[in-house]
């Protein structure tokens, strides 16, 4: 286990709090959004577009919250800071920037390279 896990635990706890607050705000926004009884197609399209954007943002925040909580589990089980792909230590600079990182920078770049661009 890394010697500075308390620092990373604090960063993760702070990020978890931020994400939970953002998710609560999103939930309140959805609950407060009333659909007017009379809408034309433009109103519906605008509303749908806003709902889609809110859903996308909420999905990203929830996924990040899952990653943060997974990192907290790794702290507890002693595997925090170890690359899940190669087993080497994840760089301190990377962990300071993204404390929930699962991969070292080399393996993260390799994983990003596996993303297939959409066809046009």
Which tags fit this structure?
single chain, Four Helix Bundle (Hemerythrin (Met), subunit A), mainly alpha, elongated, 120 residues
Overview of this protein structure:
It is built from 4 helices and no strands. It is mostly helical. It has a single domain, classed as Four Helix Bundle (Hemerythrin (Met), subunit A), CATH 1.20.120. The longest helix is centred in the middle third of the chain and has 37 residues, at 41-77. 13% of the residues are buried.
Give me the secondary-structure topology:
Layout: H1 5-32, H2 41-77, H3 92-97, H4 105-113
Helix pairs in contact: 1-2
What does this entry show, briefly?
The chain has 120 residues and is an all-alpha fold. It is built from four helices and no strands.
What is the CATH level 1 assignment?
A: Mainly Alpha
Shape: elongated
What is the element string, with H for helices and E for strands? HHHH
Which regions have little confidence, pLDDT < 50, spanning 5+ residues?
A: none
Q: What's the CATH topology label?
A: Four Helix Bundle (Hemerythrin (Met), subunit A)
Structural class estimated from helices and strands:
mainly alpha
Quickly count the domains.
Answer: 1
CATH architecture type: Up-down Bundle
> End-to-end span in angstroms?
46 Å
DSSP helix fraction = 55-70%
Beta-strand content bin: under 5%
Biggest beta sheet summary:
none
* Name of the CATH homologous superfamily: DksA, coiled-coil domain
Number of strands: 0
